[in-house]
Amino acid sequence: MAWSHTVSTGIPANFHQLSLDPADPTAYLVDGEPERMRKRTVTVAVKDGAPVTRTQWWTRYGPVVTS
């Protein structure tokens, strides 16, 4: 026997708008102090094709997304 939620009223994602450090585009400001983003390189296998590699940037709040 198994049990699981099918509906949740929780918040599925939280987005934070961060200010970049003017002196370093790979850092953002937390309480006025710069904090470096972490760089992660990910390679994904593609069926019948060459692997695809992308760079992801992460903050203490999660991955960086742009609009």
Overview of this protein structure:
There is one protein chain. With 67 residues, this protein is mainly β. The chain has a domain at 20-61. Helices cover 0% and strands 45% of the residues. It has no helices and six strands. It has strands at residues 20-21, 24-30, 33-36, 38-44, 52-59, 62-63. A three-stranded antiparallel β-sheet has the order 1-2-3, with no helix packed on it. The protein has a three-stranded antiparallel β-sheet with strand order 4-5-6, with no helix packed on it. A hairpin with a 7-residue loop joins strand 4 and strand 5 (52-59). It comes from Streptomyces afghaniensis 772. InterPro entries: Ntn_hydrolases_N, Penicillin_amidase_N_B-knob, S45. One of its GO terms (molecular function) is hydrolase activity. This is Putative Aculeacin-A acylase.
Instruction: Pick out the low-confidence regions.
Output: none
* Spatial arrangement of strands, main beta sheet: 1-2-3
Quick one: biggest sheet?
A: 3 strands, antiparallel
Following the backbone from N to C, one meets helices and strands in this order, namely EEEEEE
- Counting copies of identical and different chains, the oligomeric state is single chain
Helix content: under 10%
Number of strand segments: 6
Structural class: mainly beta
% residues in beta strands: 35-45%
